[in-house]
From TrEMBL:
Residues 50-397 form the FAD dependent oxidoreductase domain. Gene3D superfamilies: D-Amino Acid Oxidase, subunit A, domain 2, FAD/NAD(P)-binding domain. It comes from Nocardioides baculatus. Pfam families: DAO (PF01266). This is FAD-dependent oxidoreductase. Residues 1-24 are annotated as: Disordered. Residues 8-19 have a biased composition (Gly residues).
């Protein structure tokens, strides 16, 4: 991780403080629940190693894990500005999902329908790979392979979803107000994000990989990572910063740091769970353009996320996960729209984070043997699974042996940069105003996807 914004979000909430009883920030509810780590093993002067990885989120950690597994003689070091899992890896909604990290159209254009199908198969297999590693490493991350229930709440959403479940069948699983149809993807698991990333970090350290926390990368160049505490020299340098990529010089327009926010309720009572019918542990999402996503946590809460302020001017990022008060209220309103019986429920925690969005909304894994530079990311919100696949793909690229993974359509995928400011800020905010307008039209009875959303998708490059 590299840069964080210099001013907090609006609403007047003090750092890591409370507003109307809601704790706002503190990185995330997940980290507050298990305890915030203290950065350790700070870099102390110049060092040399075989592989230097910038960013100790799941992309960097998985890459280190699989590289060491393939060649235990490698000296691998990670550089992390805060602590391992500080960013999206420890703040996400906990969906270990088979969803593609990008546009099917873009992947098909790069590798044809066969390449697209290979990508789908690899992502789906990665769900089970993460679960297998967690079991083998003794990582208890509240993982449940419970599937995800996608719900349509309007006829336009139902057209997009094309689900196999009727409204009555949806209600048998979860009683979502206004649901007209649904679809279940069985290859999705609920996860506690901080427990997962913390467990992977422990597994990596146990293998002798060094994670230099509290060490901020200032720039990356062939053969070196220059930090505020010394220079790490290595023939292979991998950038794994996802939404924080824009903080590095020369990378401000590469991936857009898109904001997503989450709230966590107080634990529900047995009566409240019975009222909404959420007896299982499946995840829940809707088909709105400004969509929401939710999980029933292991300790009986609902954690639900969605878009708040989608983008901050100049690619700035949040301060320790704090979000705007109006975003908290918007998510509260969405929650009670889904479950009217939960009106008045206590919201214990709110936080936000950034995800990396390329201009064509499709992730990439790249490595140049000539310079020794590589990177992975741009997962557009589907990173919990994709990070594992990216780590294994980077391993194969670095080791130089062509494999099925290096042949996937995201390998070497390159897109144009985002527009400069103020066009970038104006464009993204206009885009999400259009999506919200499309949702309003569809909720009012439009039978097909709003033309406004179709236009927005073309402008966005999705």
């Amino acid at each position: 991780m590299t840069a964080r914004c210099q001013r907090g979000p609006g609403g007047g909430t003090p750092p890591g403080g409370h507003n109307d009883g809601v704790r706002n920030g503190g990185v995330s509810f997940w980290w507050q629940q298990v305890g915030l780590p203290t950065p350790t093993d700070r870099l102390d002067g110049d060092v040399t190693c075989d592989v230097a990885i910038v960013g100790a989120g799941l992309t960097g950690l998985w890459t280190a894990y699989y590289l060491h597994e393939a060649d235990p003689t490698l000296d691998i070091r990670l550089v992390e500005a805060e602590f391992a899992g500080f960013g999206a890896s420890g703040r996400n909604g906990g969906w270990l999902s088979s969803e593609l990290p990008g546009s099917p159209r873009a992947y098909a254009a790069a590798a044809g329908e066969a390449g697209l199908e290979s990508m789908r198969t690899a992502v789906r297999g990665s769900v089970h790979e993460v679960m297998a590693v967690a079991e083998g490493e003794g990582i208890d991350a509240d993982i449940r392979l419970s599937g995800v229930l996608h719900v349509a709440r309007s006829q336009a959403q139902a057209e997009r979803l094309d689900g196999e479940l009727s409204a009555a069948q949806v209600a048998e699983r979860i009683r979502v107000a206004g649901a007209v149809s649904g679809h279940v993807d069985p290859d999705c698991a609920r996860v506690h994000p901080a427990k997962l990333v913390g467990g992977v970090a422990r597994a990596v350290r146990a293998r002798g990989v060094r994670i230099h926390e509290g060490t901020r990368a200032l720039r990356i160049e062939p053969g070196a990572v220059v930090t505020d505490r010394g220079t790490v020299r290595a023939p292979t340098v991998l950038r794994c910063l996802e939404g924080f990529t824009a903080g590095l010089p020369g990378h401000r327009r590469e991936w857009l740091p898109m904001n997503s926010a989450i709230i966590a309720t107080a634990p529900l009572t047995d009566a409240q769970w019975a009222e909404i019918g959420w007896a299982g542990e499946e995840l829940l999402g809707d088909e709105a353009h400004a969509y929401c996503y939710a999980q029933r946590t292991a300790d009986g809460r609902i954690a639900m996320g969605g878009r708040g302020i989608p983008y901050r001017f100049g690619s700035r990022t949040d301060v320790d996960g704090r979000t705007q008060n109006w975003t908290v209220e918007s998510l509260r309103s969405t929650l009670t729209s889904l479950f009217p019986s939960l009106a008045g429920i206590t919201i214990d925690h709110a936080w936000c984070g950034v995800l990396g969005v390329p201009r064509d909304w499709s992730a990439s894994v790249c490595f140049d043997p000539a310079t020794g530079l590589g990177h992975a990311g741009g997962y557009v919100g589907s990173g919990l699974t994709a990070t594992n696949l990216a780590g294994r793909t980077l391993r194969d690229l670095v080791l130089g042996a062509p494999t099925d993974l290096t042949a996937l359509p995201w390998t070497g995928h390159d897109v144009r940069r985002w527009e400069p400011e103020p066009l970038r800020w104006a464009g993204v905010h206009t885009l999400y105003r259009l999506y919200r307008a499309a949702d309003r039209r569809e909720d009012a009875g439009l039978l097909r996807t709003s033309r406004i959303a179709r236009i927005a998708n073309r402008v966005a490059g999705r």
